[in-house]
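Page 37, top half.
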Amino acid sequence: MASQSQKRMKGISVTRPLIYGNIANPLTGKKAAESDHTHKWTVCVRGVNGEDVSYFIKKVQFRLHETYSNPLRTIEQPPFEVNETGWGEFEINIKIYFHPLAGEKPVQVYHHLRLHPYEDDGSGQPWPKNRPVVSYNYDEIVFNEPTEAFYQILSENNGLTSTLPFKKSTKESAHPFSVQTEQEELERLDGAQREVNSQIERLKERMAQAEEELNALKREQAV
């Protein structure tokens, strides 16, 4: 029989938003000259506006490319992030573990480490040299029928807005996911869609012209 604290709250779901992803900056000066690495980057899991998520997340595992020393990095206290340098982009496996009172299995997500800006960000302007490349994903963790003990923890931290009181993160990883970031991504996608539509229209015009020329040739041959 489950203890009182492990009993499930029937018919109740609790959602907690978070972001995961990376921010990257080109290496410059002496650091760039001493290594074949081209960028410094930070991959992280955090609250949408820097909220403390450690009340429901126990630890986060980041599996990096196998060429890195100790590619499986386990972070057991906030900030849940890994700081590294490198030259290539690759997929990072992120596994999020919850506190034992949750009685929940870990959640696994994947993130493609992005070091370089998109070739065309929709603005028509070259990417500023000192501007970081930001690639964050928004997600929501849904706890269906949480245990009574875990539900109490979630309820006590409902609407928490204070930032992390822990050690400071690096300046580069302090950029929060924001409406502006989301809008920039939407504008880039919209620009890409317009370009695709334009190319489709040009292709249709060429096909129509080629068909007309073919029909004209057939008419000439029929005479």
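Page 37, bottom half:
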Amino acid sequence: MTAELSSRIHTAAVTALAFVCTYVLAFYWNLDRPFWAGFTVFVISLPSIGQTLQKGVLRMFGTIAGAVAALVLLGLFAQERMLLLSVLSLYLCLMLYLMLTSVYYGYAFFISCIVTLIICLMAVHEPQDAFHLSVYRVEETLLGIGVYTVVTLVFSPRTSIKSLYRGVQDLMAGHKALFVMNEGAGAEGQMSRMYTQYVGMREILDKVGQLVPAVQLETYQVYRYREHWERAVRCSAELLELQRRWMGTLVAMKDLDMASLFPHFESRVAELGKLFDRLDAQGKEGSPGGSSKPEDVQPLAFDESVFEKLGSTRKGLAFSAVKLFEEQTAHCRELLMLAGFLLHGGPMPELKPSASKKALSVIKPEQYAYMSQMFVIFWVATLCWILLNPPGLESIAFLELTIVLGLIGIMTGEDKPLRQVLIFALGIGCTGLAYTFIYPLVSNLGEFIVMMGVSGFFITFAFPRKEQNFTKQAFMLPWLSIGNFTNLPTYDFGQLLVGSFTLLFGISIVSLVHYALFMPNTEALFLQRQKAFFRSSEALLLHLRACREQRRGSLFRLRMLFRLHRTRFLAEEIGILAKKLPVTFVKPELVRVFSTEVQDMVSSMQGLYARLRSVDSDLLCPSQPGTARVSLVEAPLKDRLESMEAVVRSMIDGLRESARAEKGPDAPAGGQVVQDLLVSCAGIMKSLSNTLDLMRSLPVEVDSRNKF
């Protein structure tokens, strides 16, 4: 028996035992809806005690907050049902926004959504029962959390500390593997392999980031140094982004003689490689403690005579390479010190503030998409309930379950409409078979315990992975809600039919709304957003060239904030659409590289604007007003990109002239401010250059290439 299979059996057995104990206690105390206690057990069943406690605590606070919010809403709007539903829909959207923006507490906001929804809808006919419903809901949730926690502590007191250590070790090895890929930068297929490695490391980072708060509840050592663990995760994430951008810069410079431009390029890269070798060694078990300080790495410098012969585009890339090399070195040294301390008991390093700036974004496309989807689902279900009055376990149950299904789809990330319907249909079919042929044979509590234990074991064992959460809930929700098991067992075949219809109708509404809003004509939407992005980017570049007097105005700052937010929003939306494009439209690896380049472009523009705000001079203001500009409506994308390159090229040339004026004609650069501005412009130029190269490599017809 493999370790994975043994772990699955153990987890399923513990969950089944807690599930049965929860139902027995709910029957004994005659709770109103044992379904919610059993549902809680399934939801918080996780591999370790720390993860279980973390999710249980979040569920408890979310339940209490949702109950309080429901009582407040009912107290204010109980007599005005449509007003209550309107406020409730806005409240759900707000909680959904908080869920999507919160790193650690998102699950609490998700539970608050569901609890508020259920209490408000169940009390819509009898608001005087709202307090009792709130108390019952909290009781049932606490029962499920308490029983599962006790059973886990007694029978399966496993921790996630080894998983956390293993995740950090995988990150160390992944950074080394990504660095080694630099040797073949520009080779055919290398960017695709690099991107695959990058995506894999992003997944490991997400996993480690979720484990840190869970392991804090298990181990005091991790809790005591939690800031160092969190900083190590952030530092690794920042280093990963720097490595990706470094690779992109090397690809853009593949036609240059790097040995001539950077006289000590090979030796400097070799010095950096030694740091990554040490990083890889730190992640291996049995490695010596990190007591020695990381070696110094000399900065990368270019030959000024060779540099001056380059065009503005290549000059910008050279500046970008120098800065990225310096930042990679600093992050690698910091991560080495943190890993030596956390994994091997080395000296405790001093924590440094994160150098990365938070992206300027009021709302992200994913948040907007999910909020709008939830709002539409709510009101479509409400109108169906009011106008069609579909049958259900109760009339209001249709509305309740439909919105809950929409929330579950959002929480689990399931975004394939047809698959949603088919999975729930399969879950309902299995429930129907069990309810029709097995439940009538149950005649006493012992047989009921066996039936519930077997069902709990099967559902947990069959769907152990995180990406199977939607499927797990598609089997669990019909079994618990349609069965509606209480301590007064009744078999009602009509209840099965009506409940099945309710769930199928509800999930169909959820799937149709998702399809109508997000699925049709993805290719056209991608091209439209792409065109809008480059139109907005060109306007933003021209705004960045504004003179000092213009930048001081409040109206100009508002326009800049709007333009920055819109450009970043479009870049992130392109990234989301890129994942949904069919393979027949363009190769997936090409469109992924494109989506990352446009996001890098926005980050560089944002950095440029942030630095310009601290400069009281006209460094980027054109010497002659009225820069020539390509029409934004009819010009093909290639012409727009070349126009933007010309704008950035003039910005780089202007900065170089300013540097020479300050320090003489033979100086490579001016002060630190000019150097920082040059680096930001170089980042924009790198993204533009790689985007143009990508367009030339597209394996499509000329017309399609121009469109793309």
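Margin note: The longest helix spans residues 312-344.
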